[in-house]
Amino acid sequence: xxxxxxxxxxxxxxxxxxxxxVRACTGGVVEGVPYKTTMKEQRVSGSASVPEYADVVVIxxxxxxxxxxxxxxxxxATNTVLLESHRLTAGTTWHTxxxxxxxxxxxxxxxxxxxxxxxxxxxxxETGVNPGWINNGGLFIASSKERLKEYQRLQTIGKVxxxxxxxxxxxxxxxxxxxxxxxxIAGTLYCPGDGTMDPAGLCQGLTRWATQAGARVVExxxxxxxxxxxxxxxxxxxxxxxxPRGVIxxxxxxxxxxxxxxxxxGLVGVEVPLTPxxxxxxVTERIPGIENMPNVRDHDASVxxxxxxxxxxxxxxxxxxxxxDRLEKDFSFGLYELDWDVFGAHIEGAVNRIPVxxxxxxxxxxxxxxxxxxxxxxxxxEDPNVEGFYHCVGFNSSGxxxxxxxxxxxxxxxxxxxxxxxxFGYDIRRFHPPLNTNKTxxxxxxxxxxxxxxxxxxxxxxxxxxxxxxxxxxxxxLEGAGCLFQERHGWERPGWFSSSxxxxxxxxxxxxxxxxxxxxxxxxxxxxxxxxxxDFPAHHHQIKEECLACRERAAIFDMSYFGKYxxxxxxxxxxxxxxxxxxxxxxxxxxxxxxMLNAKGGVEADLxxxxxxxxxGSPCDPAFEGRGFYLAAGGAxxxxxxxxxxKEIRANGWRVSLLDHTDDMALLSVQGRHxxxxxxxxxxxxxxxxxxxxxxxxxxxxxxxxLRALRLSFVGELGWELxxxxxxxxxxxxxxxxxxxxxxxxNSGYRAIDSLSxxxxxxxxxxxxxxxxxxxxxxLAFTCKLKTNTDFLxxxxxxxxxxxxxxxxxxxxxxxxxxxxxxxxxxIVRDEQVVGYARRAExxxxxxxxxxxxxxxxxxxxxxxxxxxxSGTWYLESMGVSHPATQHTRPPFDPxxxxxxxxYDVEEPAEDKRTSAAGx
Length: 920
Description:
Blueprint: E1 56-59, H1 63-74, E2 80-83, E3 99-100, H2 107-127, E4 138-142, H3 145-160, E5 166-168, H4 170-176, E6 187-191, E7 195-196, H5 199-213, E8 216-218, E9 225-230, E10 236-243, E11 246-249, E12 253-255, H6 261-265, E13 275-284, E14 295-298, E15 303-308, E16 311-316, H7 340-343, H8 347-353, E17 362-372, E18 379-382, E19 386-387, E20 389-393, H9 399-416, H10 433-436, H11 439-451, H12 475-480, E21 483-488, E22 491-497, H13 523-531, H14 540-552, E23 554-558, E24 563-568, H15 572-579, E25 591-597, E26 603-613, E27 627-633, H16 638-652, E28 657-660, E29 665-671, H17 675-680, E30 697-702, E31 705-710, E32 719-725, H18 726-740, E33 745-748, H19 750-760, H20 795-804, E34 809-815, E35 827-830, E36 833-844, E37 849-856, H21 866-869, E38 874-878, E39 881-888
Parallel strand pairs: 1-2, 1-12, 2-8, 4-14, 10-19, 12-20, 23-33
Antiparallel strand pairs: 3-7, 4-6, 5-6, 9-10, 10-11, 13-16, 13-17, 14-15, 15-16, 18-20, 21-22, 23-29, 24-27, 24-28, 25-26, 26-27, 29-32, 30-31, 31-32, 34-37, 34-39, 35-36, 35-38, 36-37, 38-39
Helix pairs in contact: 1-5, 1-9, 2-5, 2-9, 14-19
């Protein structure tokens, strides 16, 4: 007798009573996997031996390996080989649920999934192989008004990117899905373009097309070693791949081995932050009336319901997943016995949503290994220390859905050096390398990301797991002052300040396991929960106070998590000229804001570069011969910045030295109209405009400590960044706070920086500007030395675009209604046509209204001109509601840049509202 699904999270019949129970095994495919065939039947013929040389070697014959091989061939690269230690689809691909959901809170992810979907729709025509694409639609269930707001945001970003979707009420949902219980829902989001695929058919089709084009697939061919050669500055590059069938000389290896990623990465001495876990679903017996229903995600119940012909596959994400310490290399088509104590968490939610399931039998269970990462996103891209070694792993059960798009971007990464899309959210360089090898950190963060996978995506979410890995020297001082910290790249950075201390406690694993009782009183978590809203948070007024204190008096920001690097040596100027888009052939003492571009002119980074000479040997004044450059890079992207610099140095063979002083220097930024008065009390250095102008730096003594002071601002005020040796940081901070007390100096955090920089029009990398944006599109043309004869990476692309004109442009919009918040992902509407969406949005307290930045395109695809921007009526659509907006041609706050020059109390010109929405 098959076991029915029961209420109250229990199974009404014992597991032994299942008609087709799944046993643990290490051999062939077990009975019960819901696919007509597997690759055991649809085997791709492999070559008896490996080639002596290949342009690219792909390791792993699952979804990502096959997709990468296919897209390499599509781009003309066919001297390639895929090596699979068992058979294609072995590992995790063969037992995947194969779901595809088009709506994601990111334009990049939507584009990746659309690439997969378009590939599925054409693959049978290309190859004669049916990839099993079933376009039955997808339905997201909202059990609360807050969840429905999240869906409305998804619908908006979907509309911008051409994804059709509908927000339905309970009655409309019932009409669409008659078997569903809708009594407890607020609404649903229906996407007709969603569906499912068959991994066996897909992988066969992909490899058939690639091999017919000239690529090779070799099954039953494990990789035993990968050899490397040394390069400059401690780097290495791939040279050979060793197998039992021979040695392949190559310059590029793509590791697409999923849960076994670190077996391959370890061959070149690196590690991926990835944790294997058991992941399961069950397949029901026949359900009358279920045919042709859409797939369902009930996020609040943490369960999905996949149409399986006339039955359903039921699975989800539980709070207590089972970790796998180690996977045997020959666990190719194996499954595990299902742990009903773990899986039972999904039953009550599934039965509540589809009541007929209570009396429906279970036909089979599927419990296999899957890889999960600390932020529930894949790990891709070239390793920063091993040239030619590319990661393509850790897909968190989304390898089928993301496979086509990620395979396409992976192929471009290998062939052209960079992907087309903004892939930083998936890039290996988003992780701090020492944490990749910290098993405790990886496990805790991966667990939390797994457990929260179906949680509402709020703009200011912070993790509770794996905290406190990297701290500034004034961390405890700020914690005592009530700082609520954010985590970036392992660093604890100040977010905002509350009225009482809010310490991050050790991770309690959400009380999921016996060894980890849940915290009963966690003030930090309580304050985070106040942020989990699509309205103004409870502490909105406190962030306002920090912002206005900076505008009216002075504020100090701990920005110690910034990357801090020195480049020196015989070829330092040559390297700097090529790598940085701005002119850095300046006198020592000059600080330059610049971009680093890729060959297509996309902005790989923005940072400040200070021209300097060798000093006395301290971290803020290192000793070196001749001319050098001090780089200060945003902390979340610090490794990405450093890797970009190193790649160019190695590619060109420049004779340079590179010092990393990120961890042994603090960075304290003092900003506001009283900043000069406060700091001048603590130093004999002249901080006047003539002696210390904007965009300059000096090594000075302040409060008895030597430091490097840069006169810069990321908030649009008079101010200095103090780059202080770690041992001096606490004393300098205390001295500044004491001197600033009479002047109203306050502690302030990154929530204030986000608002203040938005008001001033200063760009955030990976928000306002990304690798798929150019300086001309982002309003950063002034960072490009086009008036000089000095070549730089990306110059040709920028000049070409300048001649042709830009077809997208970053714009600034403010709402007229000061009571309406914005969070990003809002649609930008001009004359009733959607022309873009908001990349970043904040509340601008000095302007008393919300402000947003986003790129717009003409509906006809033409050049975006001033006339286009300065005409029409503008709106921002937020959660289905259109709000009149003003499009600004200049930053709305201090458009003449007077404050950074120390000029205050000058009447601002009347605001230009020619581009306001109708009625303004």
